[in-house]
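Quick one: co-fold with adenosine-5-diphosphoribose.
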Amino acid sequence: MQDKYIPAVDFVDKLELRFASLAGLYCCRPLDALINQSFFRRGIGNHMKYPSVVILTGAGISAESGIQTFRGSDGLWENHRIEDVATPEAFIRNPALVQRFYNERRRQLLSNKIAPNPAHAAIGKLEREYSGKVWVVTQNIDNLHERGGTRNLIHMHGEMLKMFCEHCWERFDIAGDISSGDQCTACGRAGGLRPDIVWFGEMPHQMEFISELLEHCDLFVAIGTSGNVYPAAGFVQRAGRAGATTVELNLEPSQVENDFITHRYGPASKLVPVLIDDIMSGEVISGANL
Ligand code: APR
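Sure, here it is.
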């Protein structure tokens, strides 16, 4: 069914272009408006209730892949103080401790025990097969979205498998341990290499681009995030103000549950594939717990 949709869009695109060039204009407002009318979209195909989808993910989506969340009863922050391992000040005070903390996490991520789960795979499939635009903004520093097939991906809190040099700002892929005395292969100086992680008090990556996505999305889905950490916790409000349908998928209500229109509670590996099927089959997204 989706195959039929694409040529129809091509046809509309060509029509619009022809119309625009006839009128000597770069864009054609009346036709633009017509294309955006829902009856016209329905006429093209039934699979595009939400032309632009933004998915925000947090630690909960990777929990069933074997990666600890941060704030659960056995979460990372139960056994480590944020001030000791996840701030720039901690890195200045005790770089060896901070490196050890992230080296352990990196080794765990690279072990053969960790693999994407059905939630990551379903999101990858959505990007590949859905006719609308799909972007994933993740707070996670693992690489499970990539391994699940997602390409339109922003790691707003950085990446475990990247490091950069604080002296020359060169970024590198990293699969082994980083040690405080290591020399940067770009500038030759020692002591500046650190994991490419956005620590507390630092600016998340690509905020301007994320703002653009939120301003223009039709469906905003948050998966497996507790809503404790801003700016990510505030994305639902921004998407909602921009007119998007907002959906929370989580094991339990988050701190910002009231900002979402729709909620589905249960494990991500079960909830996400169902949601993705609903989006792809043109359903209006509503609540349903598993
Ligand atoms: N399926 C769905 N949700 C789950 C699952 C699961 N299998 N397991 C846990 N959850 C939910 C928890 O109920 C919780 O609400 O995932 C959420 C995880 O919350 P946090 O541990 O706070 O993780 P997150 O929201 O991603 O944290 C945000 O905080 O410490 C910083 O930088 C770190 O990116 C992180 C940020």
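If it helps, The pocket of adenosine-5-diphosphoribose is lined by residues 58-60, 63-64, 69-72, 75, 139, 157, 224-226, 228-229, 250-252, 254, 267-268 (CB under 6 Å).
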